[in-house]
Amino acid sequence: MTPVQITVGVGAGAKYLGVDHVIDLGPLHPSAHGAYRLRLGVEDNVVTEAEPLVGHLHRGAEKLFEVRDYRQVLTLANRHDWLAAFCNELTVALAVERMTGMDVPPRAVRLRMVLCELNRMLAHLVFLAPLTRQLTGEPTAGTTAAVQGREAVQAVMEQASGGRIHFMANRIGGLREDVPATWIPNVRALLTTLSELLPAIRVSTVDSTAFRERHAGLGVLSHEAALALGVTGPTGRASGVDVDLRRDGEHLAYQDFQPVVGTDGDALTRVGCVVGEIELSLRLIAGILDELPSGPVNLRLPKAVKAPEGSVYVWTEAPLGISGVHLASRGEKTPWRLKLRTPSFNNVQALSALLPGTAVADLPAVLGSFAVVVGDIDK
After folding, report:
1. Rounded to two decimals, what is the model's pTM?
2. Closest by CA position to 206, among listed 283, 295, 266
3. What is the pLDDT of residues 309-346, one digit of tens each?
4. Range of the domain at 119
5. 166 and 132 in one domain?
6. SS3 call for 112
7. SS3 call for 273
8. Pair (181, 36) in one structural domain
9. What three-state secondary structure class fits 41?
10. CA nearest to 237, candidates 220, 262, 202, 208
11. Beta partners for residue 318, in sequence order
């Protein structure tokens, strides 16, 4: 049989309509948050070749950084991956602080860690919510739990920063301001709430027999392919890539811990790693709050922050993987070059390796287990 090429859009309503057609369900409308296409070669209802096509709505974020001073760039830093807004701000702030030799106050470092873990759980809960639905699309108790958990995390993030999506809590030299007096008790209450909600999410996903049968063995990304393609975060760790910059990095003060690492690299393991990440974040936040120091949360800065001539590369562990910033300066108050290494841009390449051999009927399950943010691709 001659292979038929099918273009499947990744978005609401995307589905397979038959091997006798050339179908283009993507990219989505430009007014959406972003779009990418999957060009699939299909033979006998099985994917034989996959090519992700990106760049339909290029944002030009890196060029915009070059015409704004170091205080202003943080406004842009949280917008390419809106589910990791705080983590993106932090990576850029850390690059400038390292370039200028700033020593951030210990309380700011610890609060940044708490806010990073909250942001991580927020991103993972958004990803898990649709996976908890039944095959018919009906919501379950796990769906309600995921939505309630997301709203609860957003509430404490909003209390600390004033924003629900674009937090703008980081500043060069620390945080914009200290958290309110009631915030720490509210975070502890949130940890209890999420601990109570997680069992329902697990029952609807990785602890569900039907879910396990639906996802086990599908969309396998091998350890070798993950390393070759630079896949990181829960997706990479599901394939045995034991890298987590919270443990292996140098920029934040995490204690020794073991990240959630799988071996099978299939759709079920990827979802399991995301659920495990939430449980890990709950433990990390509790430990950080127990050792939270007092003191200031920022440094007094000159009117214009100027980085010395030179370059630096800083990377952190964002919810979807490694987020890196290469900052090059000519001694001015604006970056000469600010290059982003975003996890979604690297991770989306893995679809070309894991989709071949997948039955067309299984595409929704495989693609649903693979989290990317399109703005993070078209940065």
Report:
1. 0.91
2. 266
3. 999 999 999 999 999 999 999 999 999 999 999 999 99
4. 61-377
5. yes
6. helix
7. helix
8. no
9. strand
10. 262
11. 321
